[in-house]
Design a protein that fits this description.
This protein has 518 residues and is α/β, with parallel strands linked by helices. Helix content is 20%, strand content 31%. The chain has 7 helices and 28 strands. The strands form 8 sheets. An 8-stranded parallel barrel has the order 21-22-23-24-25-26-27-28. Helix 5 (404-421) packs parallel to helix 6 (450-464). The radius of gyration is 24 Å and the shape is globular. It starts with a strand and ends with a helix. The model is unreliable at 282-293 (pLDDT under 50).
Length: 518
Amino acid sequence: MELRFGAVAHRAEVYVNGEKRGFHEGGFVPFCVDVTDCVRYQEENRLVVLVNNELSDTSLPAGETEILKSGRKKAVPYFDFFNYSGIIRPVWLMSTPRHRICDYSVRHEISGKDACTWYQVEIENPEPDIRMEVRLWDEEGKLAAYSEGMEGKLVIADVHLWEVRNAYLYRLELRLFQKDQLLDEYSEEIGIRTVRIQGTEILLNEKPIYLKGFGRHEDSPVLGRGFSLGFLKRDFELMKWIGANSFRTSHYPYAEEAYQMADREGFLVIDEVAAVGFVKRAGTAMFTAAGSGKRPESFFASPTVARLKQNHLEALKEMIQRDKNHACVIAWSLFNEPESNTVQAGEYFREIFEAAKAWDVQKRPCSFAMALSSQPEDVVCHQYCDFLCMNRYYGWYVKGGSEISDAKEAFLEEMERWAALDPQRPMIFTEYGADTLSYEHKLPSVMWSQEYQIEYLKMYHEIFDRYDFVRGEQVWNFADFQTVETTGRANGNRKGIFTRDRQPKDGAFLMRRRWLES
């Protein structure tokens, strides 16, 4: 018997009837705790979960914890979203057999009108007389393919492929037998599709795709990051209304239900691990090398980087293991806006990228989201990327307001340098946006007005359309979201195309026209 937690931010100690039964680090993926031998059957049981969301230089996401004069602790995030805490996703009590299906992996090959799905199943406590039956059912409930064994292939004739905004899902059924006795069974919907990069094209089922969508956050009024099926459904309906076909799980893996819905609706997902805040911050304790009193030259030269890498690799492995079979997941994002221009960063990145490639049987493309500090002349980590993800804010953080015409020229100048350096690799803009108050109107436009957001977006779209290697645009952000209190934030980040309660700003109608007409 196990307790399965969908996610606890950011670390959890689990106690059952006063006995510690488990610990998990990382706030965005599931974990299980075995309680078989400590529960009292037919009696009341006491479950206690000790939750901690303190930030450090080894946590994902990164930050630090400040002690105030009052003695209270204050989270100091190195990231721009609220550091929620708690049991943020569903908890299940599971009863499982001794011999059970633990995991499975699939990868797909397409040949003309047919396809082959290679599978591999992992079971607990295998024995010689245990066997596996694998069936694939189509949406009409007809048997599409059959195989036996812990690994093998399913051959599908006249296959229905999973396409963008036109999803077709088969049901994969795994059944575990010992002689003729059924021991365990598991089924899940899967989409059959391939994804690869060729030159400047991102190919889904060998056809070029262009990503239109958003960076998003799991954030809503009242529940914060707590899972809400109602808000999830509302978000997907709004994305469909506006003409989007994709999103990035900025800046952490989302609830499993989000991927299931993306599979069903045909949305493309860049799945991102919670490696955000990996940059050197002036005045923070983590940047004093132990015993030396000197600041290291690189974030990745800090004394605790080995522990950080261990946590990073574990979080990455858990994300890939959970999400690897989803058709919607077409790529992995391994960092958001990290330091990327030092020798130490290059070595760190190499290990993370190699691990992602090794753990994913589908060998999806990998990338990371680059901040403005990642310029073509000095970035040393972009060579590991299969495609480039760019976060750019010319016209907002750089040359904002009345300088927006200069911002356009600065943006174009950088784009020309990227075109000269790396013209044969796809580029996706994973962030671009301007804070906008839904009630603010001003002519001529000023920053924070709806008119300025539209002027800003039009400028970016004009530049995107000039370059063939730009293969996607994901606006920052889908909806306004909560952040810490600062003078640069009006009760949160207001870059949403929709308000926090999911109502459209004027920019939403601009995006709808662009995306539905293209």
